[in-house]
Specification:
Blueprint lengths: L1 H26 L6 E4 L10 E12 L4 E11 L3 E4 L2 E4 L3 E5 L3 E2 L2 E4 L3 E4 L1 E6 L1 E2 L8 E11 L7 E6 L7 E8 L8 H10 L1 E10 L1 H29 L7 H19 L10 H26 L9 H6 L4 H6 L1
Parallel strand pairs: 1-14, 2-13
Antiparallel strand pairs: 2-3, 3-10, 4-5, 5-9, 6-8, 6-12, 7-10, 11-12, 12-15, 14-15
């Protein structure tokens, strides 16, 4: 009785501790995604053109960061609009992109909306959910009808669900991010924006919880099988059913990983594949233990009737 009471207390303490850890970890998550712009953008000049960069989608599988570059104009060059800008003079924008328009010419007295663009991500999903990526966009602007156009590159700081993104304006010449270097780039008509991207806290926590579910299921299955092998409990069809059900459930759990990472990542090599292999082996062990159990004939009345001297045989006589 005392041993059972101690076991109950231990289970209660473990469950309470796990629940507390999960609650604290959940409270530490601010949102499904976050964005921080670390650069101090120099104040724009009165007469200027520019591009406001907005992140749209992060696709690590394709190694792509999708963007929208919204043209801006002030002073003699035109007027900002909600979704673009009206340009008084012709302006040409150049973007160093992986796909999309690399050169966009805007005629004078016209309106230009957002420019879709894609830049390449540098990084790998092999360390999911702790994978990190870098991306860089170089842009410039010039006007053939008006000299001295100041170019302002800005960041709209648009969050992308499932990712934590930080951006920084850097100088083309020395990779510095101080105001003087950035102002020199503006006056020269170009600018560069860098991103550092990682999974959000919510994504990391969910992936860890799913991994713990897989591992805990494997540990429980090993413990049950060990008890059966040590003959402390008899083999049971119910145990084999549990192992088979959990094995097929693993593939559903793997499919719930946020972000849909491809097969073969580190999570698969160190968690998913080993757990699958363990369960397959445990099913074989339990099947052998069931088929070779000593009292198998107690489940088969026909065999009892055929044995001379058996209880059912004597009754039949």
């Amino acid at each position: 009785m005392l041993s059972r009471l101690r076991s109950t207390r231990l289970i209660y303490i473990v469950v309470t501790t796990c629940a507390f850890i999960i609650v604290v970890a959940s409270l530490s998550i601010v949102s499904g995604g976050s964005y921080s712009a670390r650069s101090e953008v120099p104040e724009a000049e009165l007469d200027s053109v520019g591009l406001e960069i907005r992140t749209v989608q992060v696709d690590p599988t394709e190694g792509a960061l999708d963007l929208l570059a919204t043209p801006r104009a002030q002073g003699v060059f035109g007027q900002d609009l909600p979704n673009g800008a009206f340009f008084t003079y012709p302006v040409t924008f150049n973007l160093d992109v992986g796909s999309g328009e690399s050169t966009v010419s805007v005629p004078g007295s016209s309106v230009r909306g957002a420019i879709p663009a894609t830049v390449y991500l540098q990084g790998s999903e092999s360390t999911y959910p702790f994978d990190t990526y870098q991306a860089r966009l170089f842009t410039s602007a010039s006007s053939s009808a008006q000299e001295g156009a100041s170019f302002v590159l800005s960041d709209a700081a648009q969050e992308v669900a499932g990712f934590s993104i930080s951006s920084e304006l850097v100088s083309i010449l020395n990779d510095a991010s101080d105001v003087d270097s950035l102002r020199s780039d503006q006056q020269s008509g170009f600018g560069m924006l860098e991103w550092r991207i990682e999974r959000s806290n919510a994504t990391k926590l969910l992936a860890i919880l799913l991994g713990l579910i897989m591992i805990s299921g494997a540990v429980v299955s090993l413990a049950i099988t060990a008890v059966i092998v040590l003959r402390r409990r008899p083999p049971s069809i119910a145990v084999m059913v549990w192992l088979a059900v959990f094995l097929f459930a693993l593939f559903q759990i793997r499919g719930q990983l946020p972000g849909g990472p491809p097969a073969g990542i580190g999570f698969d090599r160190f968690v998913f594949f080993p757990v699958v292999l363990i369960l397959v082996l445990l099913i074989v062990v339990n099947l052998v233990a069931w088929s070779t159990r000593d009292d198998w004939d107690l489940e088969n009345p026909a065999s009892l009737q055929s044995e001379p001297g058996s209880l059912l045989g004597r009754n039949h006589e």
